[in-house]
Amino acid sequence: MRKTTRLKRILGVFVLSVMAALPVTPAGAAQEVPYDTYNYNYWEDVVRTPAAYTPEGSVSGTDVGTTAFKEPRDFCISAEGEIYVADTGNNRIVVLDSQMKKVNRIIDTFTVDGEEDRFSAPYGVCVSENGELFVADSNNARVVVLTPQGEYKRVVKEPKSEILEDDFAFIPIKVTVDYADRIYVISKGAFEGILVFEADGTFSGYFGTIEVKISVWEKFWRRFASKEERSNTQLYIPTEFTGIDVDSEGFIYASNIDSEGKQAVRRLNPQGKDVIQKGENKNVGGDIRYSNYGDYNGPSEIVDVVYRNKGMYSLLDRKRGRIFTYDKEGNLLYIFGGIGLQDGTFQTPVAIEQNGEEIIVLDAGRNVIMKFRETNYGSLINDAVGLRYNGDEKQAIDKWNEVLRLDENNELANNGIGKAYLTAGDNENAMHYFELGMNKEYYSIAYKRYRNKILADNLGWIMTGVIALIAAGIVFKKIKRRKKGIVREEGLL
Q: Are residues 429 and 462 in the same domain?
């Protein structure tokens, strides 16, 4: 058994390595795509799937009537649908219309106390719910707050606090704002966590620090290792965050590069505690299987996260150019994207957003925004997840059945149908679909409910039978005693 499992794992790594090098069109895809579309089954083997999203073209600076973008690093979408691009190399913010057909305006200067001021390598950009524009002005060590038209309002400067290291350098690279106007900033090299500022710019502390666990063996080894040996090993410091987003409830989604490839995103509540769910395989870190050799070896390197809607979020992997989408429960829904030179693949993907029904990705290598539209397969999964999120399990079953028509071995769909039946109280059907979906946890829940219902429905008969057995036992004992008494009276004993 161990040899078989090991062989399957080696085969899975080999298949994924081949997939990374040779794009192949999956069966059932709406059209040819220049990347591989796949998922992982219960055994964590790679399984091919239809394409959930297909390329829809790209947008460059010259396409929208301005000069070419130069190493853009971030973008965001306002409530009005305008797209703000942090054109880092050109030291400007380019504002596009919602269709990305033209430039609405360019913000490269602003006036402070009667004097003209400029950005220097603006890395991050965000528009708050109340319409304020926040720019992580990296080389100027500040976050600039403007109106959507580019008029200066205030600035968030380098924080001063006893909890900061003496050599701390404020280099903001990503910024977001919650419904209470609290400002969350990722600063380069700030391993202690995300910096939080109040609406007036007052620094309030670190948020969501990632704890790094050291094994007992590592602690023992470091106790007896030489200074040189310790210096040559990995430093056990918290992980640096790479991307940030906020949902409608005020939870912060923050991505990070995880060296183990297990958890590359966190959902942080107002207290900074991670409350993300990790699904059946306990992995929200991108690729589960990967090679340890070649140009694209090692776990995924997640550089950004976008909260989409109804509990779904997507992660962007810069190493293999993959986009991984999960539901609220941490189940991996679909994977698409890749590194390459074809339309729909990336050179240096740095940021991801959802624009209506499209997924858009900012590529700093090509200096373009790549667009992807959902296929029927992707739309069905998105709709089914959304229906379950809203509690409409009956309609979700119909969507999942359509998914199974396109991808008959889709464990996610079988589990979705099973959960719908479980919610409806149809435990027997739930057990059937959880078995197909290889979901031991939910199968066990459905089985216990099924068993308890059978016991409850037949409790009267069961109790009658128990009482009858007890009565029969009592009668049997009396008859046995009477026979013994007769035998004694006749002197046979």
A: no
* Residue range(s) defining the domain that contains residue 402: 395-447
Residue 376 confidence (pLDDT) above 80? yes
Find out whether 338 and 320 touch, Cβ atoms under 8 Å. Answer: yes
Q: Of all helices (H) and strands (E), which one includes residue 313?
A: strand 313-317
Residues 6+ apart with CB under 8 A from 386: 309, 310, 312
Burial call 18-34: b when 16+ CB within 10 Å, e when fewer? ebbeebebbebbbeebb
- In whole angstroms, what is the distance from residue 430 CA to residue 5 CA? 28
DSSP class of residue 346?
B
Asked whether 283 and 299 are in contact (CB, 8 A), the reply is no
Tell me whether residue 379 is in a domain: no
Tokens of 52: 């959930």
Cα separations in angstroms, 44 against 259, 293, 324, 366: 19, 20, 15, 33
Using a pLDDT cut of 90, give the percent of the chain over it.
72
Contact 52, 28 (CB under 8 A): no
Q: Between the CA atoms of 55, 61, 65 and 66, what dihedral angle is there, to the nearest 10 degrees? A: 170
DSSP string, 31-80: S--SS--EEE-TT--EEE---SEEEEEEEETGGGTSPPP-S--EEEE-TT
Of 271, 365, 349, give the one whose Cα is nearest residue 306.
349
**3-state secondary structure at position 385:** helix
The verdict on 322 and 421 lying in the same domain is no
Residue at token pair 């409830």: 249
Are both 207 and 73 inside the same structural domain?
yes
Q: Show the tokens assigned to 4.
A: 């078989």
What tens digit of pLDDT does each residue of 444-492 get?
Answer: 999 999 888 888 777 667 667 777 778 677 777 777 777 666 655 555 4
Q: Of 77, 115, 73, which Cα lies nearest the Cα of 97?
A: 77
How many CB atoms are closer than 10 A to CB 466? Answer: 10
DSSP state of 274: B
What residue type is assigned to position 151 of the chain?
E
CB 192 within 8 A of CB 211: no
E strand or H helix at 203: strand 203-207
Residue 439 and residue 280 in contact, taking contact as beta carbons nearer than 8 Å: yes
pTM over 0.90: no
Domain count across the chain: 3
Q: In whole angstroms, what is the distance from residue 146 CA to residue 86 CA?
A: 14
138 and 174 within one domain:
yes
